[in-house]
Design brief:
Mean pLDDT: 84
CATH superfamily: Outer membrane protein transport protein (OMPP1/FadL/TodX)
Radius of gyration: 27 Å
Number of strands: 18
Distance between the termini: 15 Å
CATH architecture: Beta Barrel
Number of domains: 1
CATH class: Mainly Beta
Low-confidence stretches: 229-234
Number of helices: 2
CATH topology: Porin
Order of helices and strands: HEHEEEEEEEEEEEEEEEEE
Helix content: under 10%
Oligomer: single chain
Strand order of the largest sheet: 2-3-4-5-6-7-8-11-12-14-15-16-17-18
Length: 474
């Protein structure tokens, strides 16, 4: 099993570093477009997670939730994303397909009050091609192109002081490459064109701190229908010369009784420390006369090298962030199952303090609001498969840190999803999560670009209490 997990992580590491996960002009700013830190379960509910704690899902947004993972839980996600960019010149379609994260959570000790988690996922991505024409002071055209991104590998743990209160922390290591190219071409032949390429390697660390508090209130419902299972054994003779055989028949019925329902209230908060990452960059600048697309060093006929720097050291400062949230769910004491959850999150970060080698960017304060939940029919007297499916929905609104030509860039959308249980009589059970997101970022006003996106996500949660145990007999 451990060899399989190692192979999965190596495959994901290659996919994260080798592919461009976005095609958006807004990834030009800062460290790129932020990637979701959620699994499909949370994404399809609008991205809530500050207060959520669930035994069958891994909540990496608030590390205090790991205390609820008292079974070994392995999760990996992949997605297909379609982007439609709209500006004054027309529409442009792009699509990406990639892994989005791979994580594992497991209990620590035998007291069922602590857990740990580790994993790998993208943190931010860059992928853009922008062209702008200016007529003043001299007619010229600017081309911008970028790719790359930052990934995150983390190790976290959580501890419950009691039934109600838990604390947790993630130690995150950020790493990645960001490449930016800028080319200026002049319509006047007497002025040399200009090429500038910047390749940056980033390495840094930060810490996520989380706390969750839970309290509940009991209600008693009368005359609730329960599933009743009776086992009946009948003796039968198949043939005159055959021995008697026993036939086992399961008989299902319903009965009335009392059901104690518990309303569970969860509150959560997180704090992510700032990151003053070490960075090195290679910078190459040159003037040229002739070129052919795409704009790369090998595709221009250099006239004069005006800047050349290798291994220049500096810092990239990523600001801190805080988040709060709450959720409410229920639990039937008869069989420890719940059939609904509703929650809301708020997160804030001040990106005006962002610095790249001592230089600020046109970034602003950012906040997000997320609302969502799920519903499961869970009628206790029914035994069909559809009775166990989770139906999820949510919405989100984000004021991004980007301000372009005096316009705040906002991101809003909706999420839908299903949780399809997979039962196995062996050592492993699981849940197949299907999520769909639709949203929009930006606007076409002030000669900007709107980015409409559709995202289909698949996630697999494998849950077991048997992994890594050594058996004397197989």
């Amino acid at each position: 099993m451990r060899n399989y997990l190692l192979s999965y992580f190596l495959l994901l590491a290659f996919c994260l570093t080798a592919q461009t996960n976005t095609f958006s002009p807004y990834s030009y700013y800062g460290i790129g477009s932020p990637e979701s830190q959620h699994g499909v379960f949370f994404q399809s509910m609008g991205g809530i997670g500050q207060a959520l704690r669930h035994a069958n899902y891994i909540n990496t947004v608030n590390p205090a939730s790991y205390a609820a993972n008292q079974k070994i839980n392995f999760e990996f996600n992949l997605y297909l994303k379609l982007n439609t960019l709209h500006d004054s010149l027309g529409y442009y379609d792009y699509k990406t397909f990639n892994f989005s994260r791979m994580v594992m959570a497991f209990p620590i000790g035998k007291k069922n009050n602590s857990g740990a988690c580790f994993g790998l996922m993208p943190y931010s991505t860059k992928g853009y091609d922008i062209q702008r024409h200016f007529i003043s002071p001299v007619s010229h055209t600017d081309f911008y192109s970028g790719n790359g991104g930052i990934n995150k590998v983390f190790l976290g743990g959580a501890y419950s002081l009691n039934k109600n209160l838990s604390f947790g922390a993630n130690l995150n290591y950020l790493f990645g490459n960001i490449n930016n190219i800028r080319v200026t071409t002049f319509d006047t032949a007497s002025i040399n064109n200009y090429y500038l390429e910047n390749k940056t390697i980033l390495r840094g660390a930060n810490i996520d701190l989380g706390v969750q508090y839970q309290h509940d209130k009991e209600f008693v419902k009368e005359t609730v229908k329960y599933r009743k299972e009776d086992s009946v054994y009948l003796r039968s003779n198949r043939k005159k010369n055959d021995a008697d055989s026993m036939v086992h028949i399961k008989r299902y019925g319903i009965r009335a009784g009392h059901d104690t329902v518990v309303l569970v209230f969860n509150w959560g908060a997180t704090f992510t420390t700032a990151t003053n990452s070490n960075a090195t960059r290679d910078v190459y600048g040159a003037t040229f006369k002739d070129y052919y697309l795409p704009f790369l060093q090998k595709n221009i006929i250099v006239k004069d090298t005006v800047k050349y720097s290798v291994g220049e050291k500096g810092k990239i400062f990523i600001p801190r962030s805080i988040g709060v949230g709450f959720s409410i769910s229920n639990e039937h004491k008869a069989d420890k199952r719940n059939n609904f959850l509703f929650g809301a999150d708020f997160k804030y970060s001040n990106w005006t303090s962002y610095l790249n080698f001592g230089n600020p960017d046109s970034l602003h304060q950012s906040y997000s609001i997320k609302i969502g939940g799920y519903y499961k029919p869970l009628k206790l007297y029914r035994t069909d498969y559809f009775n166990e499916i989770e139906y999820r929905a949510g919405i989100h609104y984000t004021q991004t840190p980007m301000v372009v030509r005096g316009t705040l860039i906002n991101d809003y959308g909706i999420g839908l999803g299903l949780g399809l249980p997979m039962k196995n009589r062996g050592r492993t059970a699981g849940i197949l999560n299907v999520g769909f997101e639709m949203g929009k970022m930006g606007t076409i006003e002030n000669e900007l670009t709107s980015d409409t996106y559709f995202k289909l996500s698949l996630g697999l949660n494998l849950i077991s209490t048997e992994w890594f145990r050594h058996y004397k007999y197989e």
